[in-house]
Specification:
Number of strands: 4
Number of domains: 2
Mean pLDDT: 80
Low-confidence stretches: none
CATH class of the largest domain: Alpha Beta
Largest sheet: 4 strands, antiparallel
CATH topology of the largest domain: Alpha-Beta Plaits
Number of helices: 4
Order of helices and strands: EHEHEHEH
Shape: elongated
Radius of gyration: 18 Å
Strand content: 15-25%
Strand order of the largest sheet: 2-3-1-4
Oligomer: single chain
Distance between the termini: 26 Å
CATH architecture of the largest domain: 2-Layer Sandwich
């Protein structure tokens, strides 16, 4: 069994676009798995969890939470042993801004 091809995306929309491109290119949808690695309580940039506490006459949600940014929390996996489908998936990944999660993990491990 081959290990899946796994790419990490910083934005859900980018990962979803890559997934849609793969299906359009001919990869079977059941070979693809888009995983979101965090929920609303996960790490974010901005004031999403606690707000900035400012009193406002505007919409409090917009004032206190509008700058939250989620980063690097989306994995698109391709599960197939078929060499031609793996190459097709890899070519689609190359057209999108993503990181090879397996290669990045290997670089991060010493020795």
């Amino acid at each position: 069994m081959h290990s899946p091809l796994i790419r990490s995306f910083e934005a859900f929309d980018d990962a979803a676009a890559a997934q849609a491109d793969m299906v359009a290119a001919g990869l079977p949808a059941d070979t693809l798995n888009l995983r979101v690695l965090q929920d609303e309580a996960g790490p974010v940039e901005g004031n999403f969890l606690v707000g900035n506490g400012r009193e406002t006459t505007d919409d409090p949600y917009t004032t206190n939470f509008k700058h939250a940014i989620t980063r690097g929390a989306f994995l698109l996996e391709v599960h197939t042993a078929d060499a031609s489908l793996r190459e097709l998936a890899d070519s689609v990944f190359r057209r999108h801004r993503c990181t090879d999660a397996v290669a990045a993990g290997a670089r991060a491990r010493p020795g």
